[in-house]
TrEMBL record:
<dbReference type="Pfam" id="PF12776">
    <property type="entry name" value="Myb_DNA-bind_3"/>
</dbReference>
<feature type="domain" description="Myb/SANT-like">
    <location>
        <begin position="51"/>
        <end position="109"/>
    </location>
</feature>
<dbReference type="InterPro" id="IPR024752">
    <property type="entry name" value="Myb/SANT-like_dom"/>
</dbReference>
<protein>
    <recommendedName>
        <fullName>Myb/SANT-like domain-containing protein</fullName>
    </recommendedName>
</protein>
Amino acid sequence: MDEVRSSNQVLIDEMDSSNPVNVFGSISSDQMEHSEGFEVHKSVSEKRNLTWIDEMDNFLVDRLMEQMHKGQKIGGVFTKTAYAMVAREIGENFELSCNSEHIKNRMKT
């Protein structure tokens, strides 16, 4: 008896190990990386979580206050420059890698 399946699905035993595909028949990330016209976004695996300590929080608040007094908060929102400056200062002061997204995410919590 033949199985009913969609045209883009491949059974596991039909897979060729020299041509890796997932069980739904899509191209693997290795194939995409080497295929013309495809771009593999590795940003998810390259992102690093930043563990904040109280000292870093206090430093963050002080630096954001400085940026606000310098006019880098417009309409209730900090400018990209403000985030970049604060991220650089935190990175230098605490000897770690910090970017604008870390700052924005910390402000949400």
